[in-house]
Amino acid sequence: MEVRKVVAFELLAIGAAALVFVVTFRVRPAYVDFVLAGVAVALIAASAQRSRRLWDAVLSPGDTPKHLAWLASGAFTAVALLVLVTLGWLNAAGSPQTFGQRVGNWHVVIAMLLYFPWALLQQYIFQRFLLVRLLHLLPPAAAIPLTALAFSSVHFPRWQVMALVVLACGVWSTIYYRTRTLLPLAASHALLGSVLHYWVFGNDLLNAWLP
């Protein structure tokens, strides 16, 4: 019971601070998110041993082999990629930038590589830190959707992105809960995030990051 109280206090404090920040700074430079994420990870890393103990106390659904995390993540990424290709094709209709031009932009490959550490950072925060604490308060059927909603809310007020992220994070969180493996989730996140920007929205992340 004491653990539940401490976890509940942690989440309430973090949730309140995050809500105030997101609502107050609806439009902000990209580097601000990187700095805040770095601070968050530093604080989370300081409590890494406690997080490990919390995960050890979570009832495991079974000893799922780690390689299944890559298989499940790969299958989901393939399906999601088809959805993004369809959305990109539809969004490019009537746009000065054709879908072929978006797909042919080789910057997307470099963006994926640069995106990977950022994706790993986010997955670490939401899976390793947040999900386990929610699992101490709620059953997995509630903790996983709440983690997905929290992940989605970080992208406020980009509603299209939020809708896609909440679905993706629901899958990623389920995979992590069963396998405790972050790398395939970060790889999926980096690939899909880059494709979303380049193929669906027509945004060149590389030019935005390295003007």
Shape: globular
Q: State the domain count.
A: 1
- N- to C-terminal distance: 52 Å
Radius of gyration: 18 Å
The total beta strand count reads 0
Description of the structure:
The structure is a single chain. With 211 residues, the protein is an all-alpha fold. It is built from 10 helices and no strands. Helix 3 (48-57) crosses helix 6 (107-135). The radius of gyration is 18 Å and the shape is globular.
List the helices and strands and how they pair.
Layout: H1 2-24, H2 30-46, H3 48-57, H4 67-92, H5 99-103, H6 107-135, H7 140-153, H8 159-179, H9 183-200, H10 205-209
Helix pairs in contact: 2-6, 3-6, 4-8, 4-9, 6-7, 6-8, 6-9, 7-8
Features:
211 residues
Give a brief rundown of this model.
With about 210 residues, this protein is mainly alpha-helical. The protein has helices at about 1-25, 30-45, 50-55, 65-90, 100-105, 105-135, 140-155, 160-180, 185-200, 205-210. The chain has one domain.
